[in-house]
Amino acid sequence: MGSSTGRGPRLLAIATAAVLAVGVSACSSSKSSSASGGSGKSGGSFTYWSMWRQDEPQAKVIQAAITQFTADTGIKVDVQWTGRDVAKKIGPAMAAGKAPDMWDEGEDVVYGAAAQNGNAKDLSAVLDMTIPNDNEKVSDAIPSKYWDSLPKDPSGGQHWIVPYEASTAGIFYNTADPGVSAAMASQPATWDDFINVCQALKAKNEPCLASEGEDSWTNGLWFDYLLNAAGVNFNDLASDKTGAAWDNPAVLKAAQQVEQLVKGGYIIPTYTQTKYPAQQTNWAGGKAGFLMNGNWVTAEVAKQIPSTWKYGFMLPPGATQPDSMIFGFALTKNAKHVSQAEQFMAYFLQKKTLSGISTQADNITPRTDIPAPPELATVQKTLDAPKLRLTFDGVAGDWTTKVWNQNYLDFWHGQIDAATFISKMKSAQVSFWKSQS
Amino acid sequence: MSTATIQDSSRARRSRGGSAPRPPVGAAPLERSRRRMFWAFTAPAVLVYFVLFLVPVGYAAWTSLYKWDGIGPKKWKGLKNYQTLWQDPTFRHSLTNTLKILVVGGVLTFAFAFALMLILREMNRKLFARSVLFFPCLVNAMVFGIAAGILFSPTGPVDKILEALGWSHPPQWLATQHLSTMILGTLIWTATGYYSAILMAAVDQIPEYLYEAAELDGANAFQRFRHVTLPMCWDVISVCAVLWTVSSVKIFELILMYGGSSGSQPPAGSWNTAMYVYTEAFPTASTPQLGLATAAALVSLFMVIIFTVVLRRLLRRDPIEY
Lengths: 437, 322
Hints:
The complex is a heterodimer. Chain A is an alpha/beta fold. Chain A contains 19 helices and twelve strands. In chain A, strands 1, 2, 3, 6, 11 and 12 form a six-stranded mixed beta sheet that branches. Chain A has a four-stranded mixed beta sheet with strand order 8-9-7-10. A two-stranded antiparallel sheet of chain A has the order 4-5. Chain B is mostly helical. In chain B, helix 4 packs across helix 13. Chains A and B meet through helix 1, helix 3, helix 4, helix 18 and helix 19 of A and helix 2 and strand 2 of B.
């Protein structure tokens, strides 16, 4: 009984996983950067699965860095542009012993899929490394608040990721939209003010909000921020095994505020009937005033917005701390080429290399000396806050899938009211934690 | 009778001089050689079946008794994973959805397939019609998932046509509360063509004179179906029913494509047991629960076995030879 770590059965167990997870990528795995001349300075190689698809701008920035890195150090990087599916593939791949040395994802995925079980290597050594050419330590270039906001792995460490892209989420709008500027002279200070803005837009037959109705993440940000405004920690709420935390009147109030948006008819009418990115496109086309999303949305709609468009950004009134999400590199537990991969992490954080994330990929970097793209200047200021808070206070994974998604979507689609939403969440959460014990 | 056989056999032995290996009692030469070859021919198949099916199932059953993320050490849980499944409302709901697809989907698919059998047998250009009907099952489920977003959007062709026909408020096809219905509809649409093709192959074998005789006796189209077609291809129907049972329980790519948005799983209300197994084994941003996943897979397997056995019993008829 107890534990079994026998190698034979494990090999058998991974057969299916290996076929599913590695099979697809195996075909292209020989595509190592063998072309690089390499001056043979330190040599070696490491493998890397990226969360970006090859055609995404981030992939192009990282690829350019890899090419230069190999030329400078002689270290070859065997990279696979896996895309977001890396989140599902990395676990089975680690189980099958086929995982790469390095991979990257959002901090929530790296924690959920690896770090929380001690399957991500501690990268404290990288923080002490000197960034080539810039001659400053990694820990000096990247503010420590990015690590301080992270949950701890089983050994109590927070350095299981090295961030290269920082982001937050909030309400985006076009300040040049005459409807919006007429309805909102200045950014609303209270929730009621915001509802009044929505009401003014509605009076002119312009929907206040665009929303991808199927997406519980972006739509859930409303509830997340309103809980924050009410002083409720989302993670405490979600991890309460008794469900009693849902009885807090502040939670009901936040739900009722969300309900105002739904019942008030302020959301674009077709929002429950479409698939991503239909409503984001509508918003970029000026068919709705505001959109709640992560700041990557500006890069996503860059080709759709008219040249007259001027970005405005705000948090829901009352929210005290901006959401923070970082994307970064992590090492798998059994990574073999640790030193080579760590060298690359420090190398990629060079000011001139990392600037590509801002200039080419139109996103924000965690380095304060790299300016954000102009449209995200105000967003970057939000991230200057001394303390950051993870999106949904770090809640991710199974709870989201089994407790949150369906109930929140029902609520957001107006099928259940705030009180029913609270009671359904409470009972689903109690069942969930019971099944997890 | 038995005495006679023994005598026969001993006589035969004597006649060969008693040197031949002793044959099994009561076996004719042909039977004997068949028996000798039985294991030689079946052993490879049995071996493959054992290694590729029974061993993994056995291993899955063993894994289902542990809590295991696939990487770290296993933790003994006994039957607690099954208890967890029972207590998990998501799994209970998934089980209900699986049964709904199996029963409602099955009844409707076969109702349509029978209706098509009735029509297709007697229509002109039936081969062309059959090809058209069969076509949807050649298309990858992922295509449906993606195409649905375009076809059924409020500005898509389906709503435009319905509005042109005077239906001012068509249903919200893609709304999450209609997800299960849309999935079921697509499933029935693709499966009907598939099962019609198999059933029509059986119908083609029915001698034409039986229909002519029925027609002379004054049977109408439905009566000809009821008294000639149905009994004559009953065996094929029962095989199709089993095929449907087995395949309907395994469907999950349709659910994933219809319900999944960028990066997140479909809402739990639309899951079936296969989808449940998938999300437990390949979760986004959390730890794989292989013990729970294999337990859920075994529950599905058990359900398929029960349904298959019951179906085979219910559909058993004396074979008709013609």
